[in-house]
Write a structure and sequence with these properties.
There is one protein chain. By secondary structure, this protein is of the alpha+beta class. It is built from four helices and five strands. The longest helix is centred in the N-terminal third of the chain and has 12 residues. About 10% of the residues have low confidence.
């Protein structure tokens, strides 16, 4: 696994190594230093009855917001819903229901940049029953609409001939290659 390029595959292997005879691994056995180069991409979350109150025990450099401090208490609620940690926290109910790792991905925002991300949530239980902690491992790359649609030749029309009916709203632009539709070819009759 040392050469494995996928963060999610490396994390699944570590989680499986910590598992005890098919039971969930214990948070007490978790050593963040064992994540090596991936430590910057992980967050360790202590769950609570209130989802937004889940405490962030550790947040890797890449995932931290400006308010992170190792000495202070920070919760999932300190991160916007469309941030990397917000998107990961939204999948915690799926991990609780499945009682196994959950992998997912999509688009989001990191700071002011649009991103394409891939993540995995790994459940941990100290008593073998109750999932009390989740490790989130997230990697991403920045994307732009220009990169997304670069292979599509856009129609060229004089600006004064474009009607208001075909005006484009950047607020409706989707950055996800899996769900984005290529622009329609528009012919303007003269």
């Amino acid at each position: 696994m040392a050469d494995e390029r996928r963060l999610t595959t490396r994390m699944t292997a570590k989680w499986t190594d910590l598992s005890r005879d098919g039971q969930l691994p214990r948070h007490a056995d978790l050593n963040p230093a064992s994540f090596g180069k991936d430590l910057s991409n992980i967050a360790i979350i202590e769950l609570s009855a209130e989802p937004g109150a889940a405490e962030l025990l550790y947040v890797g450099d890449i995932l931290r917001n400006d308010g992170w401090s190792a000495g202070g208490v920070q919760t999932v609620a300190h991160y916007p819903p469309n941030s990397l940690l917000g998107l990961a926290a939204a999948k915690i109910p799926a991990v609780l229901a499945k009682r196994a790792p959950v992998t997912f991905g999509g688009t989001g925002v990191n700071g002011v940049s649009a991103i394409l991300y891939r993540a995995i949530l790994l459940p941990f239980s100290d008593d073998g029953e109750t999932i009390g902690h989740v490790v989130a491992a997230i990697n991403f790359r920045e994307i732009t609409a220009v990169q997304e649609y670069s292979e599509v030749e856009m129609p060229r029309a004089p600006v004064d001939k474009v009607s208001a009916a075909i005006a484009f709203s950047s607020r409706r632009l989707s950055f996800a290659p899996s769900v984005a539709k290529k622009p329609m070819q528009i012919t303007i009759k003269q």
